[in-house]
Amino acid sequence: MSKLSITELSKELRHAIESLETSGNLDEVGVVLRIGDGVAWIHGLRAAGYSEVVEIETENGTVEAFALNLMEDEIGAVLLGSDSEVKAGQTVRLKGTVLTVPVGPELLGRVVDPLGRPLDGKGAIKAKQQGIVERNAPGVMARKSVHEPLMTGIVSIDAMFPVGRGQRELIIGDRQTGKTALAIDTMINQAKQKTGVINVYVAIGQKRSKVARLVERLEREGVMEQTIVVATSPADPASLLYLAPYAATAIGEYFRDNAQHALMIYDDLTKHAVAYRQMSLLLRRPPGREAYPGDVFYLHSRLLERSAKLSDALGGGSLTALPIIETQAGDISAYIPTNVISITDGQIFLETDLFHQGIRPAISAGLSVSRVGGAAQTGAVKSVSGNLKLGLSQFRELASFAQFGSDLDDATKQQIERGQRLTELLKQPQYQPLSVWQQAVSILFVTGGHFDSVPPVKVKDAQSATLTRLWADHKAEMQELDKGGKPTDELLALVAKVAKTVVKGFEEA
Amino acid sequence: MARKLSRRMIARHVAERIVAGDAHDVITQQLAAYLIESRRTNEAATILRDVAYHLAEAGHVEAVVTSTYALDASVEAAIEALVKRATDATDVTITATLDPSVLGGVKIETPGHELNATVAHKLQVLKTRYKKA
Q1: How far is B7 from chain A (nearest CA, A)?
Q2: Candidates B4, B113, B119, partner chain A, best to mutate (most A CBs within 10 A)
Q3: Which of A226, A235, A451, B51 is buried most, with the most CB atoms less than 10 Å from its CB?
Q4: Looking at chain B, which residue has its C-alpha nearest residue A14?
Q5: For A427-485, what is each residue's pLDDT tens digit?
Q6: Residue B48 touches chain A, beta carbons under 8 Å
Q7: Pure H helices in A36-133
């Protein structure tokens, strides 16, 4: 505990009282007409702007709200706190500002709510700057095309659906298919590979126990120092769930605008849309498809448009987004999934069937795509993964035919066998992201045919053994490859030679 | 069925008639009859508040001044001048009320505006500020 000084305290108090001087001007005020379900209907405040903050004077201090419905006779304002103190007839004051949130490096390693209030018990956050929660996205001239890789450390993603800095790549799938796990691995990889990318994880209506587990894991992996968690739980008002991604984006934008790179993880936007639907229905806006309001597309498009790669003139910083969407029974043609698919620059679709077959990460090669990441892919991985996606998709189709037991020609058999090995190779345990050289040579083991004699069940062991041998005996070459350049012919020959030696111990008897 | 009139339209009509010099008892009687007939009596207070807004726009402002002790003539004149300056009103009516719970200072309420310079309000703001910190 800091030293308690009554003299200091009294000085502070006197200063606080002095700072409360009355300006002598009349403030614009209104009156609460009705209150219920976290929405206050206010009479007056004709000068209120959209999304402007108002303060309701209750018996125990003020409660903040923000104006969302500006109508002829009244204003609908969504409360940012509990509505238990708010009563009809109370005075409402215009604050004269829109919502802001503290931003800056002081937030690193902290868990905060969407208003920037600490939730981790580590004391007050002394941020020097405030960021506007609802801010416009950068314009066309402020941007640059995505060209730098954002390595996730997950072989199947970095090889087949690469993500670039400034890209928006959707992670979509049913519940319990490993969506959050992919996001966590990506965050861990930023710390392990020392990429300098700042992680901002937004938990929208996630159970507090889940957030606590996540934070504990990130601390254990040493990632928390470069991570900010913005958390809301199902017990929070819908207004906070609605604000969470916007507030977190404002926090991420600070790094983007200061020539740094940040990664946003929105977990998940389905719950965000549901919170917005709740607010809209309570504000009596007309319901549309699935009872969502008409502007639910704009809800997510204006959010994700803020993720961008900035031009060199603006420092070249970037904000990459990995929004998460939860589907019901694999239906990606539902309202919110189709909206977010069309907004983002690609999607990683996780299949329940694959997950239950033990293929994890359960990425569907056919339904996943990265529209802009190809330009940002690391040379080392790009050079070895040319036909990987096509090969894997063909294998999964052929494998389903092969189940009928019909005779297959040699070429098809070889394709199936290689596909089986590739599938095994792309399996990756959680919290173990791979570096660039590990990914490049691992893919080479299968696509180069070095593992053709290894039975599929032993592929992972053979991969691990070969990687260990390569690192032990040829560290300098592997470090060179890790820089991301295209592997030389000599290096390819070296990998082939080492693989050939190691796999002898794994061949079928 | 007749279209439901918005509160603002009703208030504007009433304010225009008051400014035109129509008898108050006739206006209130007609308004009461309309509210009862359209089952909108619960909106009476809000409509009157809107009427005050419209009258203020027309330059007729009623300022309700709350204080612990009775105001002397010079303070009342100062408040009238302040309200005139702040609202661009041509005609200001001061309605003084005494309320010991404000502890000290003065609160001036005009339609849609307020100047709360009471000790009770300052303490409330201080309480909220320290609660947030």
Answers
A1: 6
A2: B113
A3: A451
A4: B126
A5: 999 999 999 999 999 999 998 889 989 999 999 999 999 999 999 999 999 999 999 99
A6: no
A7: none
